[in-house]
Amino acid sequence: xxxxxxxxxxVGLGAAAAMAIRAARGSGLLPTRRQRCEGCGQLAPVASxxxxxxxxxxxxxxxxxxxxxxxxRCGSELFSAMTLHTVVFGWWGMISFFVNLAxxxxxxxxxxxxxxLPTAGxxxxxxxxxxxxxxxxxxxxKDPDTVIDVLCRASGASRMEVERFVETLR
Length: 170
Fold this sequence. Notes:
Blueprint: H1 3-26, E1 34-36, E2 43-45, E3 47-56, E4 61-70, H2 72-89, H3 94-115, H4 120-130, H5 132-141, H6 144-155, H7 159-169
Antiparallel strand pairs: 1-2, 3-4
């Protein structure tokens, strides 16, 4: 097997593992940290990541690192910017060639870690499912608009998601 084939197999296995872990987190089997993303400021599932950017020069190299606690979208944008620069400009030097391999591997590992985060919609569906009994009890005594407002506050889900959830309960 060539090095490219080995890399493709590793990336494929990493992507499959990321999807399995994301599904487990979305269903509530694995805990997920929700806090404000440093990139967009939204309350979302976040992960702490550190990406490297390397610029190779013939005799020396220069690198930057950026650490952040971000959501999937903001972390993916940071990964793209840092890794693209590293892949294009990071190989131009004797020392840089080897350092660059480590930086690209690090960036890829942190990117896969970000991809394991559940989407906000998956978390909202899990939170609403946790509130099912409560919602049924509320529907027995309150009007649907009140139930939707209460569930929006209790679950953190959007109004549209809660409306769909309440429709399935009727």
